[in-house]
Amino acid sequence: MTGHAVTHRPDPADTDEALCERVARRDEAAFDLLVTRYQGRAYRLAWSLLRDAEEARDLSQEAFVRLYETAGRFRGESRFSTWFYRILVNLCLDHRRRRRGWRRLLLGTDDGDPPPIERYPAPFTDPADTLQDAHVRRQLWAAVERLPARQRAAVLLQAQDELSTAEVAAVLGCSEATVRVHVHRAVAALRLSIGGNER
Length: 199
Hints:
67% of the residues lie in helices and 0% in strands. By secondary structure, it is mainly α. The protein has 2 domains: 11-107, Rna Polymerase Sigma Factor, Chain: A (Orthogonal Bundle), CATH 1.10.1740; 114-199, Arc Repressor Mutant, subunit A, CATH 1.10.10.10. It is globular, with a radius of gyration of 19 Å.
């Protein structure tokens, strides 16, 4: 049997969707496996939306709690990842809405202060890291921070997590046309924000 490559075919019982069905039956091993598969991506997405490490940890963990509690509601009409990202993004968007008033109160609105996004580098590799100019990178992330929450979610889901327009629409609970509008406006705003550096 030497000289032949062994190809490993994934066990259908190990797909995300099958694991979610097992979680609905309170299978702890299946839940642990989904956490292992998604915890890095969940944290990265939460951090991209919130730009705060502690909040990203809390919200990504909360998303797994929601997953465990509501796994029985997953009907397999979309991929598991789409369904799970929707839980996570909704938690993050709700959190951003709740904290907005506190943030204005605590941080003030002095235009002379650098936005929080400029004070912390991204803890993961992202497309902005291909930019050689650190100042341009800060400007780009500052522009991402200023995007409306749903535009920001749409562009990050497509650019970082490589979801299709249909999948982003499922995550955000809107039409594909709305996703395209969100992404178009977000990209236009980002290009405008760094346009002066490209000339």
